[in-house]
Amino acid sequence: RGFRKSKGCGCLSFHKRSISSYEDESTSSCRSSDAEVQVKAFRNRKIKPEGGLLHILFPRNLFKGWRRNNELSMTKIERTMKAAILIQRWYRRYLARMEVRRRYTWTIFQSIEYAGEQDQVKLYNFFNALLTHIPTTTRSTSSAATSKSSSIDSLNFRFEDESDEVEEEGMQHVERKYRGIHINFPMKRSDLDALIDAFRKRKQHRLHARYVAGILRESITQLKRLPNLNQASTAISKQVTICGDLHGKLDDLLVVFHKNGLPSPENPYVFNGDFVDRGKKGLEVLLLLLACMLVFPGGVFLNRGNHEDHIMNSRYGFVREV
After folding, report:
1. Phi/psi at 277 (5° precision)
2. pTM of the predicted model, to two decimals?
3. Which of 9, 190, 191, 228 has the most beta carbons within 10 angstroms of its beta carbon?
4. Cis (ω within 30 of 0) for the bond into 227?
């Protein structure tokens, strides 16, 4: 019985030992295989270039909150940039639309203006052709009037005759009741300043007809001495101021003189035609330009435009203003 017990105990102990050793070997082999799989996975996994060292040293859960905040902030920045780009796009589109509208408006206005002038020229040519083809019997009666209105020499002659008649009527002396400015001939800088001041302040006393006729007469005498082509020198001033299309805008002319200074050989001006018509102060503008030319002969150059014509002046208001 004791042997059996010992044998039985020995078998039991042997079996227990073999079972426990088998379990230890199986668990150790599983652990080793798991470790090898983990090592291979660790070796084979791809490490991102940005923050790779931090990902290795620290767990990923540590940066989850920070990464979410960063993603949200980047989304707000992107939205802000997209909104700014959209606003810029719409604003540029608005500017382009306004520029196209401005160009179309300018083109339409220019075409209307030139169409009216071309119609006036066509009408003038039509009546001129009619007068040319009228028989000599009727043309002889109106030859004097047509010749005077068509030639420049006859216009100058008529102006000289009118000025002589004015002097004969007693207008060579200014009346005592006249309260306006007085101008001496030949004109000087002080006379020009007085004329500009009178026009700028819009004094109630008009410029006397004697002074107007004197400015016109002196200007005609000086313009006849000039050639058709005049040279504006920049040797002294290094610049030339060009003004065009005043059209009777006295305020614009005074602003130019205020900002850029009066004309002089050191500050030459070129007035590029269209002095009168449309504006309400065409006569004042013309007198100021002629006075500047008389005071500064080498500082003012006047070019004739299409509105320096009797037909254009009759249609666009300068004749009525005078």
Report:
1. 75, 150
2. 0.52
3. 191
4. no
